[in-house]
Amino acid sequence: MRKQFFIFGITFLLLSIIITYHYKYSIFFPLTVFALILLGIANSFQHKHAILRNFPLLGYFRYLFEFIAPEIQQYFIERSTDGKPFSRNQRSLVYQRAKNIDATTPFGTQLNLNHADYEGIKHSIYPAPVNEELPRVIVGGPDCRQPYSASLLNISAMSFGSLSENAIVALNKGAAKGNFYHNTGEGGLTDFHLQGGDVTWQIGTGYFGCRDDHGNFSAEKFAVKSNNPLVKMIEIKLSQGAKPGHGGVLPAAKNTEQIARIRDVKPFTTILSPPGHSVFSDAKGLIQFVAQLRELSNGKPIGFKLCIGHTEEFETICQEMIHQNCYPDFITVDGAEGGTGAAPLEFSDGVGMPLEPALIFVNKTLVRFDIRSKIRLICSGKIISGYSVLKAVALGADMCNSARGFMFSLGCIQALRCNNNQCPTGVATQDKMLMKGLVVTDKSERVYHFHKNTLHSANELLAAAGKKSFSEADINIFMRGDEFKKLSDLYFPDILGNALKE
Ligand SMILES: Cc1cc2nc3c(=O)[nH]c(=O)nc-3n(C[C@H](O)[C@H](O)[C@H](O)COP(=O)(O)O)c2cc1C
User: Fold this and answer.
1) Atom 6 of ligand 1, nearest CA residue
2) CA separation for the pair 405, 156 (Å, rounded)
3) Whether 251 and 358 share a structural domain
4) Count of structural domains, the chain
5) The whole model's pTM is what?
6) Which atom of ligand 1 is least distant from the CA of 332?
7) Which domain holds residue 43?
8) How far is the CA of 301 from the centre of ligand 1 (A)?
9) Are residue 142 and residue 68 in the same domain, yes or no?
10) Where would you find the membrane-spanning parts of this chain (predicted)?
């Protein structure tokens, strides 16, 4: 192709000179052709990009198409029920609820319900009245001196750094209006989180906001910040579903001077938090740390967040709680299907337990050790609708967190650019120009409405199942497609042929 490029380029250049000379056009045209030929020559001799070496100018189209592939996929190819990680239908649901407009769909389901994977709620012929009040849950075990009344749905951990300043402020103001909490994420507690909304302060392995000069946990700094009245709960981050066993990642492009100052790190370098904590390295140390944070914060609810890996490790933590007679006030279970700003693909695709089995396991284990009543169970992992809230509660959760649901409510379009600072909606970027697109006053209203309308939908589903309160919801209100397969075997025995006769 290089030979063709040279032949075509020189012919085109000569033609452009002749046309320009003949018709007395501006010299700009042949000069542009000449510049492109020079660029092509430079490309054909460079060693880094094979495509540009072989196709000196056309090769650029590959980069262009690769850059806009997510948009092409989303706008021209994707159907309403596809789209990953969230389908167009799921995203639209959040947008409509956030805008507080009609969130109904016409004409019936687009899903294939006669399928083993189908999942639905068993409604009752005698529905309960719909509760107009949004459900709340008290968090605070036996050792807690400042229990907190939390909403059933809250904003999951997302740091300032991963999200923009405008996004954090809009989330916090929405939380303030709707009376639910906003988890800071591991990037530290900043002024943007202190806009009036209730805060859960997350402490990750980098101890951002409460670290000493060597990057170790600083009890003094923690004590000052944790006693801020807006900080209602403290969460120790052990792991996150999208990258369990891997520390947090803040790409260099997003580590601006402002963020570096808040986190006490070098600006414009990639910040990798260590995979594990330096304060403890076993269950005994973890539970001691829970006790230490409780003392330093004057008895605020303390919990930890994890994605389940080795189940025995969780059992050991339970034994240690009993041994030390010290219980976290809450445990947050994050499913492996959870989101992230940036993670290695191997970790997102192939490490950790998904939410459903993890939640069932943690709930049952706490019951088995007879400590379930002392601890609130929070969960996260693709919770964006009333249905997913109700299902999480039915599987054993007391409360839910949503990260990407609230991102959609801020206007996120799933452009999949959180990791390169080019988020076009200003949600997950530190680019000031892009951030301007996100207007805080407008988006905080959407955050408020998404929360309210989603919980209202959960209330309606609960009532349809004939239940008056979330404490009555258990897995028996759900049915699955594989059950019908068995039922149809019973009702239509002919299809079993001889197998049944035997
Ligand atoms: C942009 C982004 C940043 C996140 N940052 C954190 C974090 O700092 N700490 C953490 O524990 N989880 C973090 N998470 C994970 C979420 O808190 C949540 O556990 C996970 O995304 C599952 O919820 P979802 O399915 O509603 O998104 C982040 C997720 C996203 C999408």
Assistant:
1) 158
2) 9
3) yes
4) 2
5) 0.90
6) 19
7) 2-77
8) 21
9) no
10) 5-21, 27-45
